[in-house]
Amino acid sequence: MTDLTPMAALGATPAQTGFGPLTLSEEGGLGLISLALPVGTDLAAIDLPLPGPGGYLAGEPSIFWMGPQQWMVETRAPGASMVRLAALPGARTTEQSDGWVSFRITSEAGPAPLLDLAAKLVNLPAEQIAPGRATRTLLHHLGCFVLRRSETEMAVLTLRSAAGSLWHALTETAARHAAGTAT
């Protein structure tokens, strides 16, 4: 039997690089599962916390809102999460891991460098990139989700086919930011 080894979106191993206090890395091994529930489902009766519009809940699994009655679940244990999600009444789940790429951006110097970089990347008000928020937006003409996981961490998700373009935009902007030049 063939032993298949998953490849990162940018090559054999996940990419990682640093610019001053910022570290950018491709998140290898992150499972993504879309969840849709029928209109009219009593969300209070669901044994799973589901964030409202623009919300992001960190944990295992982490969940962010994608649209009315739609969420994306981030997990390190996709098999167990899929079983749990599929057991929800009327749930429609789809494994999405191979269709998306997630780039994690962390700051070793508190939230300021992260917010400065975000301001150069996306045209969003500060409250839409606050911790616990998830926003669908454009970044260098690429449709993506910006997730603010904590004070010092955010992630940008886009379609896997656009991984190279998004990585280029992130690293070029971070390099200019670190050098103190305008983008």
Can you walk me through this structure?
The structure is a single chain. By secondary structure, this protein is an alpha+beta fold. It folds into two domains: 94 residues, Gyrase A, domain 2 (2-Layer Sandwich); 67 residues, Alpha-Beta Plaits. The chain is built from three helices and eleven strands, in the order E-E-E-E-E-E-H-E-E-H-E-E-E-H. The strands form two sheets. The chain has a six-stranded antiparallel beta sheet with strand order 1-2-8-11-10-9, with helices on one face. The longest helix is centred in the last third of the chain and has 17 residues. It is globular, with a radius of gyration of 17 Å. It starts with 15 loop residues before the first strand and ends with a helix. The relative contact order is 0.19. The mean pLDDT is 92.
Summary of the model, kept short:
This protein is an alpha+beta fold and 183 residues long.
